[in-house]
Design a protein that fits this description.
Layout: E1 3-11, E2 14-21, E3 24-31, E4 35-39, E5 47-48, E6 54-59, H1 63-73, H2 88-95
Antiparallel strand pairs: 1-2, 2-3, 4-6, 5-6
Length: 107
């Protein structure tokens, strides 16, 4: 099954996706549900930072809530937030979990 994107864009609370699936052009509007990470209080989390620190995942209903969370805690000393705030990149990583096999003939 050939599945790849040609454009992914965040617009308000949605991901606008253009691409191809099985040779057919697709246009999709997918609700953006971003996530970030904070230091784990229990240490029982499967998520780790690049430096090996255990973190817990926090899921948000929309990008506005995630941005509000980051802004609310950005000046709090010792409260670290991990993850990408450009929510398009984590979406691409999650939506296309394996290597993307582009077909230049379809573009």
């Amino acid at each position: 099954m050939s599945k790849f994107y040609t454009n992914v864009h965040l617009y308000k609370n949605d991901i606008l996706l253009r691409g191809y699936e099985n040779g057919q052009r697709v246009h999709q509007i997918i609700p953006c549900k971003p996530y970030l990470f904070i230091p784990s209080k229990t240490g029982n989390s499967p998520y780790k930072t690049l430096k090996g620190k255990t973190v817990d995942r926090i899921d948000f209903e929309n990008p506005y809530d995630a941005r509000d969370f980051v802004n609310r805690y950005k000046d709090v000393s010792g409260f670290d937030i991990y993850g990408m705030t450009n929510y398009v990149y984590p979406f691409i990583n999650d939506y296309y979990p394996s290597e993307i096999d582009y077909d230049p003939k379809q573009i």
